[in-house]
Write a structure and sequence with these properties.
Helices cover 41% and strands 23% of the residues. The chain has 271 residues and is α/β, with parallel strands linked by helices. It folds into 2 domains: 17-104 and 206-262, Periplasmic binding protein-like II (D-Maltodextrin-Binding Protein, domain 2); 111-202, Periplasmic binding protein-like II (D-Maltodextrin-Binding Protein, domain 2, 3-Layer(aba) Sandwich), CATH 3.40.190.
């Protein structure tokens, strides 16, 4: 009788624990091919699960629009987004920023225009009439940065959208395009293979982890605390950060107003 009661008590306890464990799915804009994004995001998902007690998994998205829709439709509760993806998610679904990654201690990044190391192109204007590679068609920040620097998409002989920064870097290295635009830390990854920067944008508000407007405050705060704990310089924290992006070394809380500069920048190119 005692064993039966003990078994029932343990079963009930496990049921309560299982019911209390919340499911959290992380999404992300497709900055790399899905298999690469899985490699980058899986250690973070495991870390967040360990820190929060939630069941955390990663759901890759094929493009920017899908990543935004996944968050708005509740398929993911938190997403790693570019500034433009965040702005779209905020406008359409009232999503809010949670934390911003720090790149070498700064909450900013740069977009860079790259060419082959031995290219005759010396400055941005030299790419007029040349073949140029962009990322996602909805990544309005890329053409906006070029427009601010005096270059329109129409100035290139050929324009292509290659979806991921890695694709851009590889295409320029292969000579399929004369130049392309990418995130600074992606350039750092590929520079040893033979890339060179001909233009660097002013500092831009960083990529951001965004939460659904439907996610309760207690869960948001628990996730934020877990992200902020990665600022401790432990080997485990460094591994999670560097796997996500080789330039990342911490996080800070973020707010919607941080992205007002990008909103103004894309106003001339957003359709």
């Amino acid at each position: 009788m005692f064993k039966a009661k003990l078994f029932l008590a343990l079963t009930l306890a496990l049921s309560v624990l299982s019911a209390s464990a919340q499911d959290i799915t992380i999404g992300a804009v497709a900055m790399d091919a899905p298999v690469e994004m899985i490699k980058r995001m899986t250690p973070l998902a495991g870390y967040l699960a360990q820190q929060t007690g939630y069941r955390v998994q990663f759901r890759p998205a094929p493009n920017l629009d899908t990543a935004v829709a996944d968050l708005g439709e509740g398929k993911v509760q938190i997403a790693y987004m570019t500034p433009i993806a965040y702005i779209m998610a905020h406008e359409k679904y009232r999503a809010m920023p949670l934390v911003t990654p720090l790149t070498y201690g700064k909450a900013t990044f740069n977009l860079v225009v790259v060419v082959q190391k031995d290219s005759p192109v010396k400055k941005l204007e030299d790419l007029k009439g040349k073949r140029f590679a962009f990322g996602d068609p909805k990544a309005f920040l890329q053409p906006a940065v070029l427009l601010e620097a005096g270059m329109k998409k129409q100035d290139f002989s050929t324009v292509a959208y290659l979806d991921h920064y890695d694709n851009i870097a590889k295409a320029v290295l292969l000579g399929d395009f004369d130049g392309g635009i990418m995130k600074d830390t992606v350039y750092e990854k590929f520079a040893p293979r033979g890339l060179r920067v001909v233009y660097t944008s002013p500092p831009l508000a960083s990529y951001v982890f965004v939460v659904s407007g439907k996610l309760d405050a207690a869960t948001q705060n628990k996730l934020k605390d877990a992200f902020m704990a990665l600022n401790k310089p432990t080997p485990a924290a460094k591994s999670v950060l560097k796997t996500l992006d080789q330039g990342y070394d911490g996080f800070q809380p973020s707010s919607d107003k941080d992205y007002d500069g990008e909103r103004k920048l894309i106003a001339r190119v957003k359709k």
